[in-house]
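Question: what's this shape?

___
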Amino acid sequence: TLSDKIIFGQGTKLNVDYTL
């Protein structure tokens, strides 16, 4: 989610968000 991207701010997390 957008909030997760802001909190974690990691490429791996961003990739997971886009995959989901």
User: Anything to note?
Assistant: The CA atoms of residues 4 and 13 lie 8 Å apart. The mean pLDDT is 58. The longest helix spans residues 11-19.
